[in-house]
Amino acid sequence: MSSDPTLASDATALAAMQQASQGTLTDVLGIELLAVGRDLVRARMPVTRAVHQPFGLLHGGASVVLAETVASIGAWMNVDQQREIAVGLEINANHLRAVRDGSVSAEARPIHRGRTTQVWEVHIRDAKDRLVCISRCTLAVSPKPAD
């Protein structure tokens, strides 16, 4: 990791998200959260047969899951967590480079943090730091449901 202050992870939030992700799609795909903060979320996903499309390449849907995961966590870091949640409203992705194996890493950064919506941009890169996918995710800030 670089010395960029936005990479400083909130250890409590990181642990909470790792715990909350157990048994979810994030867990099934092997997504590993690396840093969680208000200005940056980082994660890594292994590229194995489990996330391939039929031609042996990383499935675009897996990249979208990774993108929405980091964007959603970033948005969650910017709401009143006792009263609000952030959920995906819209996502787009441009797949720029094929990946067959190894891993990909995602970095999400906010573009807009409003009262009722947030927009996050996500860059997914391969192990050689080449851009694989760029995504934009709009999230709705909603009241937290009762337990």
Fold and architecture overview:
The protein has 147 residues and is of the alpha+beta class. It is built from three helices and six strands; from the N terminus they run H-H-E-E-H-E-E-E-E. A six-stranded antiparallel sheet has the order 1-2-4-5-6-3. The chain is globular, with a radius of gyration of 15 Å.
Note the topology.
Blueprint lengths: L10 H11 L3 H4 L3 E5 L4 E7 L12 H17 L7 E12 L6 E12 L3 E10 L4 E13 L4
Antiparallel strand pairs: 1-2, 2-4, 3-6, 4-5, 5-6
Number of strands: 6
Largest sheet: 6 strands, antiparallel
This entry's quaternary arrangement is single chain
Distance between the termini: 37 Å
Look at the structure and give the mean pLDDT.
Answer: 91
Task: Provide the spatial order of strands within the biggest beta sheet.
Answer: 1-2-4-5-6-3
